[in-house]
Amino acid sequence: MSQVLPQFDPPANWHDFEPGSEQDIEFRKLWNQKVNRWTQNAIQSSESDYYYNPLTTDIPPSPASASAAIGWDAFPNRINTTFASESQQTRWKYADEGPPATSPPYQPQGPRGWQDEYCEWSVSRNSSGKITKVMFTCENPEYWTTLFSIDPEKVLSLYQQLVSPQVTMKDITHPGGQYNPRNKWNNSTTNGAVHLISPPNTLGAEIQLAADATVLRMDANGQPVTQPDPLIRCSRYGTPDRNSDPHIGQQVNQLVLNPPHLRVSLKNPVGLYIQKPNFGLFELPPEAPADASPEDYWKLVRGQGDQGLHAVYEVPEDQGFTVSDITINGFNIEFGSQITEQFQIQLVGLGIPHAPLPDPVPQPCIGSFAPQPAMMVSEENLHEADEHAKARR
């Protein structure tokens, strides 16, 4: 029997408060309101009937509705395309530490701006320069601003667990007491990576991109535009040459384009998720325990199953070796970005029959096929929970 979704759940249906507690209920109510607002705004701005809101649209049971997992490589592809003439080792370094200053400057700018595939990471090294731990996150900033609006002490506690017991409330807030997403424990590639901070890496941007991609496009000759980068330029959504935006857009677009012309939304719980790395190319050093495997050192800290939110790759000190002593495809792990080449970030779409809507009609391009500057996303949503926080205080 068809039915609407009761509410949007947090990514991975994760509970940072006791399930059913007053804070948990309040947080989930606020989160549902935000995802609903982003969804409605995306539908309105895209002017697409083929992106739907599951809170107001009947969802038929399977097989009439169909999930579609969309994954892409976590390594920032624009590093590869921009610096194609550089060595692979140099590109690994740029992905970890940032590309060199150029004119015009490499976009997107800002702390970890170049890590723009909805995955960011931070690398810890010992006194010898060897990697001891790499921390990966795909958690959206909107979740953390919302969490802070409900309980600042909870956010502080999570920072202390994830990055360092030394984190203080002053460290993670602006002078006025509002949460600072780009605080010193979350604005580098060495001090920790709690949640995403690159300007394009927001959940609101993901929802908007998916909605925009449900609009079919045709070129000047009336032919469908279907290839990832031409489609993204034609439709003027996201940023070309990334792994994420062009691939997400194409896959969503194909669900609408091809019979049975599905209507699409992001499946609840709406989020971006780290997938388990392919450990087939990893090899441990001789000093590793005989019964150990490379996968033993991968830990999902937040999230569950194929809905990973925060993960670390770490070798305990008592093992007698470091992450840098492990090889991938014959190369020692000198940079965290080498690990990102071995896993994907994923979202899941949910398609439903389009009837009683008519078949979709392709629209002319609204953008040029020529390469465009990287499109930035407003950072307003990084701070939108502040008013709610002030109201509570």
Structural notes for this entry:
With 393 residues, the chain is an alpha+beta fold. It has a domain at 72-140 and 161-196 and 272-345. It has helices spanning 22-46, 77-82, 88-97, 141-150, 152-162, 203-212, 228-235, 244-257, 337-340, 386-392; strands spanning 66-73, 120-125, 131-137, 217-218, 263-266, 273-274, 282-283, 298-304, 307-314, 327-328, 331-332, 344-352, 363-364. The strands form four sheets. Strands 1, 5, 6 and 12 form a four-stranded antiparallel sheet that branches. It has a four-stranded antiparallel sheet with strand order 2-3-9-8, with no helix packed on it. Strands 7-10-11 form a three-stranded antiparallel sheet, with no helix packed on it. The longest helix is centred in the first third of the chain and has 25 residues, at 22-46. The model is unreliable at 371-393 (pLDDT under 50).
Low-confidence stretches: 371-393
CA distance, first residue to last residue: 44 Å
Helical segment count? 10
Global geometry:
globular
Can you count the beta strands?
A: 13
Structural class: alpha+beta
Helix content: 25-40%
| Biggest pleated sheet | 4 strands, antiparallel
